[in-house]
Known about the structure:
The structure is a homodimer. By secondary structure, chain A is an alpha/beta fold. Chain A has 3 domains: 5-48, 434 Repressor (Amino-terminal Domain), CATH 1.10.260.40; 62-162 and 302-328, 3-Layer(aba) Sandwich (Rossmann fold), CATH 3.40.50; 164-299 and 332-338, Rossmann fold (3-Layer(aba) Sandwich). Chain A is 44% helix and 15% strand. Chain A has helices at residues 5-12, 16-24, 31-43, 50-57, 69-72, 78-92, 114-117, 132-141, 164-176, 193-208, 212-216, 230-243, 255-267, 301-317; strands at residues 62-68, 96-102, 123-127, 145-148, 158-162, 183-187, 221-223, 249-252, 277-279, 296-298, 325-328, 331-333. Chain A has a 6-stranded parallel sheet with strand order 2-1-3-4-5-11. In chain A, strand 8 (249-252), helix 13 (255-267) and strand 9 form a beta-alpha-beta unit. Chains A and B meet through helix 4, helix 6, strand 2, helix 7 and helix 13 of A and helix 4, helix 5, helix 6, strand 2 and helix 7 of B. Strand 2 of chain A pairs antiparallel with strand 2 of chain B, so a sheet runs across the interface. Chain A binds a DNA duplex through helix 2 and helix 4.
Amino acid sequence: MGITIKDIAKIAGVSISTVSLVISGKGYVSQATRRKIQKVINDYNYRPLRSAQQLASNQTGNIGFITSDVHLSRSEAFYSRILLGVELEARNYDYNVLLSTVGEGTNIPKNIPRFLKGRDVDGIIIAGSIPEDLLWYIHDIAIPVVLIDYRLPDLQHDVVMMDNRHGIQQIVQHLTSQGLERIGFIAGSKNHPSIKERFEGYQITMEQFGLGNFARAEKNHFLVMQETSSDIGTEGIASILKNEPALQAVICANDTTAMGCLKELQKRNFRIPQDIAVVGFDDNYYAAISQPTLSSVHVPKIEMGVEGAKLLMDRITNPNKIYQTRTVPVEVVVRESSRVTT
Amino acid sequence: MGITIKDIAKIAGVSISTVSLVISGKGYVSQATRRKIQKVINDYNYRPLRSAQQLASNQTGNIGFITSDVHLSRSEAFYSRILLGVELEARNYDYNVLLSTVGEGTNIPKNIPRFLKGRDVDGIIIAGSIPEDLLWYIHDIAIPVVLIDYRLPDLQHDVVMMDNRHGIQQIVQHLTSQGLERIGFIAGSKNHPSIKERFEGYQITMEQFGLGNFARAEKNHFLVMQETSSDIGTEGIASILKNEPALQAVICANDTTAMGCLKELQKRNFRIPQDIAVVGFDDNYYAAISQPTLSSVHVPKIEMGVEGAKLLMDRITNPNKIYQTRTVPVEVVVRESSRVTT
DNA sequence: ATTTATTATCGAATCGTTTCGATTATTCTT
DNA sequence: AAGAATAATCGAAACGATTCGATAATAAAT
């Protein structure tokens, strides 16, 4: 079928190994032969066969990307964008990206990505939460791993996170600077590390602004275990308002939740933001076109993927490095839903 | 490093080739030896190394998934869901999925997915539009290809589409059954085959309902080349209303466009659906939670991916089969934005 | 009971690279 | 100018599977 390195060598009148050296850029090859060989390669449009390279070099040139099926099909395209970032960066290293989704259920071994069994990848990136025992399984394989927007307290890994605490801090600051003080908090999937950090950020910052009493009162939060959905916002705001009718603002742990919140408030004829200000987190596409437009914290998803890929490449070439956590900066985007003063 | 087929053979006391036969399920192996070998394989948790299999068998066990970067990061997760479907189905065949995005720009050869150059995949799936010359390039490689939600008139391929015409037909029927007759149409990226079919569906059905005159008048459509965005809806409805103030309903070629349309109408204090009914297409997540909730046509995205993967597997094992077009059914979901009568 | 067909097992070639060590050619030291 | 260091090239052994053909064992046919 295809043209092989052997053909190239014969045509160029050199040995196979010299051609290989030219391709990989390793070792010593004289300018003259290098050019000669390169010309033949170009002329015949030759590319080495990956599987042969893989077998001989014991490197696959592939990385695996694992995320849950639910995450991948999320409407906000949050993890899709992270995947995109990974793909973009992997390309710079001439790596392929293999995708595998896993169910939320904890069904090992059916859940185990095929590329792990066949030793098809040099390293993997895990985006978002996956079943804990699967993470342990992967950990035990001793393959380079980078986690994006996820982590387990008792497991050491390279990790990429967004700056959740600082994002919330900016929000609280923005709200209080407008004189709002009774600020509630709503979140789903509270076991997720990002959500946890956002809640902690809320508590810490409120404390700093002298609003610790309000922030500590349980009636002013709504935290549940469910997967992110707009229902959480709907239920959440209802629950808080029941006990705290004088609420002035509410921070939702993400935009989808905020959307549900918005909807419920409108149904009850609250004016937003005059009666209650609402802010989300993530800065979805829909934040910018919802009615009213939603203030949020912009998270650079693609960059998170890029950073993750870089970290992974680093770890693959340098397996004994100390583990790193990389935190990408975020920024509040103020829109109609929280702009009280003009 | 890892355990090899040689080790298994030695431990089981058989030849390498017999072990291979057990793994692949081909040829003749007695019950007794089969069990014996299988036991060793299980005990040692052995998996054949893919790259070695690939090299020896000249099959990769991989499929490539190509989509544009813009499509993948789309907020509606339309193509992410198709990807998910492909992944789910590929798993049933024990195939890996390699992902590559391509820029919208037409920069061959930088745009060429790496897995094509290294002959890393047995076939590829292309979801959504990609630069035309890239499609020609792929066509020339003569590798099995399936297109999902895309096609080129003068290029033969296996194709998966949604039933755009019938979806629109259902919409028009739904609207006219409520007495609405002056129904406009708004779409972006009008060169996309799905959008084209939706527009054709609009024209044909309107004709069937005796509303051909209205549907044929250019002032009642807004068709532009831009990529899908909510701005198209905003501009579109403004444009149509200028020439046709008595508009009763508008069909948007997708939900995102409809969102922009909704927003503009609300800004102008139109009541929806009493003054103007709005429907979208695709049935996004946000269609169900927007204000008002948006009527739309549900498209089973994951199933489209599944169908695509099936078609591709079929073509890989059977390269000379006649080309197929598979059309998945769609269904109107009526919500607040178009429910005039109660 | 011999021939023929079927089932079972194996040895060896093969797939297309990388890489190690050997060999030769060139350049640098003193 | 001889020996040492460096640069250039090559041959051959891996890498870990598949697969073809040969051979041996068993079953079926006459």
